[in-house]
Amino acid sequence: KYERLPRVELTGVLDDRDGGDGGEPENYLIVGVDNASGLDEDDPVRRGRDDLSRSDTIMILRIDPRSRQAALLSLPRDLWVPIAGTNSHQRINTAIERGGPQLLIRTIREYLGIRIHHYVQVDFASFQGLVEAVDGVPVYVPHPARDRQTGLNLSRGCVTLDPEQALAYVRSRHYEERIDGEWVEDPRSDLGRIQRQQDFIRRALSRAIDRGARNPRRLDELIDVGLDGITVDDELTADDIFRLGN
Predict the structure, then answer these.
(1) What is d(CA 182, CA 89) in angstroms, rounded to the nearest whole number?
(2) Dihedrals φ, ψ of 169, to 5°?
(3) How many whole angstroms from its chain centre is CA 137?
(4) CA 176 to chain centre
(5) pTM for the full predicted model
(6) How does DSSP assign the chain, residue by residue?
(7) 169 pLDDT exceeds 90?
(8) Phi then psi for 159, rounded to 5 degrees?
(9) Across all residues in the chain, what is the average pLDDT?
(10) Is the pLDDT assigned to residue 228 strictly greater than 90?
(11) d(CA 62, CA 116)
């Protein structure tokens, strides 16, 4: 099924892997795009949205085959940077809208000095599909929580997030908790969201491994979700995916 993955041509933009044998660390740029075009017409997330793609979430996954460890770096979407190839500064999340993933990759490399070897893009619908394929993702919520902009509404305790609430949770920048009878907004804004996103990814990975590794049918469902809306660079090979899985 790997041949059916949606592709974006990034030849000449990505860095070559040292040695080419899979022994050197690799950086995967993971972008969650603010695009609701794949959702149902009546989905509340679509309200007031167009079908343009903007980078709502930007992460760099660094894989080190020798240590068998992975590290995740999140870039705040409002990080003010010089945009590559221009004489202007702007928020980093505008780069993909102005010049596609090519411009975002060049900006990260030129400003932050981070080499990007592969690219992965996920939209709202694909994210929800992944959550649905693993029967939701359990998270611990210490206080009742809400975000009136994303539609988040959670009770206190261990909650298994369904696709809609999972998307509202990871997108929340105005996260409020009810503490001692008062609603208090998280003052960290995007930094608080980054912390919740990284925690969510760890939990989702654990859930996917638990569901997929023991159930070939479920693993096949996860792959099908990826084929529906996860876009990768044109240089990602089947061997790269197997190495990443291992």
Answers:
(1) 39
(2) -70, -50
(3) 15
(4) 22
(5) 0.86
(6) -GGGS-EE--TTTSPPPSSSSS-S-EEEEEEEE---TTS-TT-GGGTT--S---EEEEEEEEEETTTTEEEEEEE-TT-EEEPTTSS-EEEGGGHHHHHHHHHHHHHIIIII-----EEEEE-HHHHHHHHHHTT-EEEEESS-EEETTTTEEE-SEEEEE-HHHHHHHHH-SS-EEEETTEEEE-TTTHHHHHHHHHHHHHHHHHHHHHHHTT-HHHHHHHHHHHHHH-EEETT--HHHHHHHH-
(7) yes
(8) -120, 130
(9) 87
(10) no
(11) 9
Among residues 116, 120, 51, 117, the alpha carbon closest in space to that of 84 is found at 116
C-alpha 136/C-alpha 79 separation (Å) is 31
CA 21 vs. chain centroid, Å, equals 27
Contact 5, 230 (CB under 8 A): yes
- Residues 76-95: pLDDT tens digits? 999 999 999 999 999 999 99
User: 228 φ, ψ to 5°?
Assistant: -75, -25
Task: Note the maximum CA span of the chain.
Answer: 59
Cβ(35)–Cβ(51) below 8 Å = yes
Q: What angle, rounded to 10 degrees, do the helices at 190-212 and 163-171 form?
A: 150
Q: Beta partners for 149? A: none
Give the residues across from 8 on adjacent strands: 233
Distance (Å, whole) CA 50 – CA 115: 32
